[in-house]
Amino acid sequence: MPAELVEQARAGRPAVPGTPVRLYVAPANFAGQGWLWARSAERHVPGVGAVSMVGIPGGFRFASDHHVPEQVYLRSAEWQREQFDYVRQGFTHVLIEAQRAMFGSLFSSNAFTEARVLTGYGLRVATIAHGRDVRLPSLHRENYRWSPYVREEWADVDVLERQVRRNLAGLASLDLPAFVSTPDLLDDLPDARWCPVVIDPALWESPEPPLERARPVAVHAPTNSKFKGSDQVDEAMTDLHERGLVEYRRIQGVTPEEMRAIIGSADLVLEQFRLGSYGVTACEAMAAGRVVLGHVTEHNRQRVRDAAGDDLPIVETTVENIREVVLELLDDRGRAQKVAAQGPGFVRRLHDGAYSASVLSSFLTTS
Predict the structure, then answer these.
(1) Cα separation, 122 vs 251, whole angstroms
(2) How many Å apart are CA 35 and CA 275, to the nearest integer?
(3) Which of 20, 42, 82, 266 is most buried per CB count within 10 Å?
(4) 121-165: per-residue pLDDT in tens?
(5) What is the pLDDT of residue 59?
(6) CA–CA dist 230, 155 (Å, integer)
(7) Are strands 21-26 and 48-54 parallel, antiparallel or unpaired?
(8) pLDDT of 71 above 70
(9) Residue 35: is it exposed, middle or buried by C-beta count within 10 angstroms (0-12/13-18/19+)?
């Protein structure tokens, strides 16, 4: 282990907040959510200070209070012990992300053991699921017609099934507060609370209304093509592109900053079509006032209504009718623009951090 990497991680360790409630969020930070939940708690729950840490590559490219090199996070016993002492001695509350160990291999890479140890020291501990860590493939196949968790498409689906079952059993053994980041995960953790993903709506505001140009721009920017229905999106939208009806832009490998310009310049944003829910990209596109297309099942839309008091402004679309829905929107642009206009307000009500902080407050205000 290069000593300079350990020193880099040590030097980057933030000061412990000087607030009565001190929240530590780690270690995944997928889509920047760990950092955003931490900031939301600070901003909206009185007396809370928070620190986020990321040690997993999937969260490195997003803002975090403490970026720890993966080698250090996984292999440095010295850093792991120091980090455990830092959290144990300095914080009152811990939010474990994605059932991932916060201290590398210190406790056999087991987040549930970490939770028990920290609870034994008097800290309040909760977990928050991001997705595949608790989404049970067999249950998803039963509930969602276009589920991507099928053996014909994914050889490792049975491996994931076993991993998720272990995670669900671990959570059940803890009997601690549990949160989920998307509404569909309540299928797997019915006793959890939905703590929505967070974005900064101001960063995504776009002055240009959608569908004003003759040939609209349609964007699809999947983080994982298998889970988003990208093959079907590509087939339908390439056809419409070649017919001159839309300009289709398939986006991959861009930075979060580049995504703002991409979404802001789009008319239509095609998000995901196989999981039956919606995620961060849809929220960003709604905040920008774009026309968002995706497949969100009725029972998940009802969960959104229950939380927001409003319908989800995502145009219902499946992998089987992408082409037809886009053509209908092009024929009735006024209707599409009305749906798009609802997006910014919806995001401010449910995804700007205030609602998520209110969900977390029940955990944070318990000592």
Answers:
(1) 46
(2) 25
(3) 266
(4) 999 999 999 999 999 999 999 999 999 999 888 889 999 999 999
(5) 67
(6) 18
(7) parallel
(8) yes
(9) buried
How many other CB atoms are there within 10 angstroms of residue 78's CB atom?
A: 13
**Tokens representing residue 164 in the block:** 């998720």
Question: Distance between CA 294 and CA 266 in Å, rounded?
Answer: 15
d(CA 335, CA 314): 12
Predicted confidence at residue 366, as pLDDT, reads: 76
Report the distance separating Cα 218 and Cα 269, nearest Å: 6
Structure tokens that stand for 70 in this block: 């993966």
Q: What's the average model confidence in pLDDT over 13-30?
A: 98
Give the pLDDT of residue 58: 76
Task: Report d(CA 139, CA 160) in Å as an integer.
Answer: 12
**φ and ψ at 232, to 5 degrees?**
-70, -35
Q: What rounded mean pLDDT belongs to the chain?
A: 96
Residue 333, CA distances (Å) to 321, 322, 323 in order: 18, 16, 15
Q: What is the DSSP letter of 342?
A: T
Beta strands in the chain (DSSP E): 21-26, 48-54, 66-67, 93-97, 124-129, 178-180, 193-194, 217-220, 247-250, 268-270, 291-294, 315-316
Sorted by where each starts, the structural domains of the chain and their CATH numbers stand as 3-198+353-364 (3.40.50), 201-350 (3.40.50.2000)
Cis peptide before 27 (omega within 30 of 0): yes
